[in-house]
Recover the amino acids of this structure.
């Protein structure tokens, strides 16, 4: 379900405060400055919950938004953002000493823990953009390595670059037509596509280094785990043996990314369970059966883990997803 916000409906005297509050609740606290007076400013924002991601579509006149050290000190969530230009004027992003100017079908990453500046409509034209925001822990890449790629233009060149851009553009056009269950699954696919694109960029920069080989092994291991999430007997020893490495090496691979083997497996299993719970086609399937399908041998352990991750028990999440789907019709 999406929420539509139209700037035209806000009194001119209140627009500066409106933008301050809207950006803080939709993304993170930011300063917003139009090139002229707020009186002539027009814009439309559509925010959508998208699985573990937050997606916002914008049709806006030129504006500059900044995340300053002062604002970061007030609220410092660890989030990664994808900024996609869908049409209209070009946009600019600056972070970490880098600057990127994006044309339609191009995108860039940036994070909320460091100062940044985004200029929408650098050529003084209205623009259509889409942002996706999510915790970087959802990507199988270390936050430190991802930070090295923020404010870098990703063009829609042939191959993987074009595939990623077209996927995001089509997603932006169709996101409001997805049910909660579909959104959960498509968001997982979106994260996989983005992670693959980032990994390609990192591999190009680090090709042949020990770090690149280590990352390639980690990606292979995580792919193996994803394929065997439903096996309750999935253990570090079994994973290590399947890849001809020691258990110690396996744990070190995950530790270097700020992760644990057990924690990463549990989060992936919970994501799959959440998708099944939101799927109307599985409404008659017992919660315990869904838990067992994804490798949880104890329904009680699953319920506790799900509540710790999502803030409510599995049965309540299922009801809320059903209500959200009904209200979206």
């Amino acid at each position: 379900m999406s929420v539509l916000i139209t700037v035209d409906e806000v009194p001119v005297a209140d627009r500066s405060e409106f933008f301050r509050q809207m950006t803080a609740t939709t993304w993170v606290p930011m300063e917003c400055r139009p090139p002229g007076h707020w009186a002539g400013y027009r814009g439309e924002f559509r925010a959508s919950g998208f699985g573990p991601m937050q997606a916002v579509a914008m049709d806006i006149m030129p504006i500059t938004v900044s995340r300053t050290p002062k604002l970061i000190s007030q609220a410092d969530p660890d989030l990664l953002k994808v900024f996609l230009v869908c049409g209209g004027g070009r946009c600019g992003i600056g972070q970490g000493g880098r600057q990127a100017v994006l044309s339609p079908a191009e995108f860039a990453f940036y994070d909320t823990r460091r100062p940044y500046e985004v200029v929408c409509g650098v050529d003084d034209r209205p623009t259509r953009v889409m942002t996706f925001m999510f915790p970087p822990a959802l990507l199988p890449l270390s936050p430190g390595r991802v930070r090295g790629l923020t404010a870098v233009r990703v063009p829609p060149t042939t191959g993987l670059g074009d595939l990623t851009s077209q996927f995001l553009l089509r997603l932006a056009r169709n996101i409001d037509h997805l049910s909660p269950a579909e959104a959960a699954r498509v968001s997982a696919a979106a994260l996989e596509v983005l992670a693959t694109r980032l990994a390609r960029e990192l591999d190009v920069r680090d090709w042949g280094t020990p770090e690149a080989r280590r990352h390639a092994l980690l990606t292979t291991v995580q792919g193996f785990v994803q394929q065997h999430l439903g096996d309750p007997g999935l253990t570090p020893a079994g994973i290590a043996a399947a890849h001809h490495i020691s258990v110690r090496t396996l744990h070190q691979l995950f530790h270097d990314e700020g992760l644990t083997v057990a924690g990463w497996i549990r989060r992936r299993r919970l994501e799959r369970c959440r998708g099944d719970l939101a799927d109307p086609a599985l409404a008659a399937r017992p919660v315990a059966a869904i838990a067992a399908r994804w490798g949880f041998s104890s329904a009680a352990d699953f319920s506790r883990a799900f509540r710790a991750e999502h803030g409510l028990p599995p049965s309540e999440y299922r009801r809320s997803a059903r209500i959200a789907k009904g209200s979206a019709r």
Notes: The CA atoms of residues 92 and 101 lie 4 Å apart. DSSP finds twelve helices and eleven strands in the chain. Residues 209-328 form a domain with the Arc Repressor Mutant, subunit A fold (CATH 1.10.10.60).
